[in-house]
Backbone:
C-alpha cells in the first residue's frame, strides 16, 4: 500500500471513530473523495435499518447544520417497541436525532412490500436511491442451499418492490438505483445477488462497489441470528458485528431503474429473429 493510500485510510478510520459530525474541512474532503453517492439533495429510502445508526451517520454527513435528514426516509421492519427492546436506548436516541434532522422514521415496514405501503405512497417513483444494507432473514436455516434460496427470494422480492420507488432518469440526474450491501465470501457469495434482477421488468444490475463502513462515523452493523427474545442468549444477536466494523470485505450491489421501452427493446434484440418486424400499437 502506498504512503498516500495508507494516510487516507488512517484519516477515514479517525473520522469513523468520531461520534459527531465531520467537522473539519479535511474530514469532509476525505469523505467527498470516497464518492459516497447519497449526497444532500437526493431522496434516499433506507430499508431494514435495525438501530438507525447507519441512517443517523448518513444524516450527519449530509448536513452539518443538523438538517441532513431532509430527503431521508428511514424504515425498520420491527415495531417501535421491538426495535427499542432489541437495540436499547441507542435505537431511540438515533431515531430521535433523525427526526430532528428532518428525516422520516417509519416502523413495521416490510422491505418486500414497500411498493404497497400506504405510509410510503408519496415517494413512489421519487427516490434516487433505495438502500438495503446487510439484509438477513434471521430464519436460522443451517442448510447452506436452503439458506441461500431463502435469501435470494427475500432480496429478489425486495428489488421488485423497490423498482416502484425509484425515480426515472432525467436530464439532470441518472435513473434511480437500488443498493444491496453484503459481506463477501460464504455464505453470501452463494446468493448470486447480481443475477437477482434477471427477468424483473424495469430493473438491471449495473455494477458493484466496495462498502467502507469508515465513511459512516458511528455506524454499528448489528448481527441478526433470528433468536427469540425470550432465549437466554438472545442479547448476543444484537451485538456489533466486528467484521463489518473493520471493513473486512463488504460490497454494495447496484441495480438501476430501466424504462419499460428500453426493457422491451432489449428483449426484442435477444429474441429469435429480433431486431425487425412490425406490430400493432
Residues:
Amino acid at each position: 500500500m502506498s504512503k498516500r493510500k495508507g494516510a487516507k485510510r488512517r484519516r477515514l478510520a479517525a473520522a469513523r471513530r468520531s461520534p459527531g459530525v465531520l467537522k473539519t474541512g479535511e474530514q469532509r474532503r476525505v469523505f467527498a473523495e470516497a464518492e459516497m453517492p447519497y449526497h444532500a439533495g437526493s431522496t434516499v429510502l433506507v430499508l431494514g435499518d435495525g438501530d438507525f445508526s447507519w441512517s443517523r451517520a448518513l444524516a450527519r454527513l449530509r448536513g452539518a447544520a443538523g438538517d441532513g435528514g431532509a430527503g431521508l426516509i428511514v424504515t425498520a421492519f420491527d415495531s417501535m417497541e421491538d426495535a427499542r427492546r432489541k437495540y436499547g436506548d441507542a435505537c431511540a436516541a438515533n431515531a430521535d436525532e433523525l427526526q430532528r434532522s428532518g428525516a422520516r422514521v417509519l416502523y413495521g415496514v416490510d422491505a418486500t412490500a414497500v411498493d404497497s405501503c400506504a405510509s410510503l405512497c408519496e415517494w413512489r417513483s421519487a427516490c434516487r436511491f433505495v438502500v438495503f444494507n446487510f439484509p438477513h432473514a434471521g430464519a436460522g436455516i443451517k442448510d447452506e442451499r436452503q439458506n441461500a434460496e431463502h435469501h435470494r427470494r427475500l432480496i429478489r422480492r425486495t428489488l421488485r418492490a423497490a423498482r416502484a420507488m425509484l425515480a426515472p432518469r432525467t436530464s439532470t440526474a441518472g435513473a434511480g438505483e437500488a443498493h444491496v450491501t453484503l459481506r463477501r465470501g460464504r455464505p453470501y457469495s452463494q446468493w448470486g445477488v447480481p443475477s437477482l434482477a434477471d427477468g424483473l421488468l424495469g430493473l438491471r444490475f449495473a455494477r458493484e462497489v466496495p462498502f467502507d463502513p469508515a465513511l459512516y462515523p458511528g455506524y454499528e452493523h448489528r448481527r441478526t441470528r433470528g433468536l427469540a427474545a425470550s432465549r437466554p442468549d438472545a442479547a448476543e444477536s444484537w451485538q456489533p458485528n466486528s467484521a463489518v466494523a473493520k471493513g473486512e470485505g463488504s460490497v454494495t450491489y447496484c441495480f438501476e431503474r430501466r424504462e419499460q421501452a428500453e426493457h422491451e427493446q432489449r428483449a426484442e434484440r435477444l429474441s429469435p429473429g429480433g431486431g425487425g418486424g412490425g406490430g400493432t400499437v
Q: What stands out?
A: The first strand starts at residue 44 and ends at 47. The two ends are 59 Å apart (CA to CA). The chain has eight helices and seven strands.
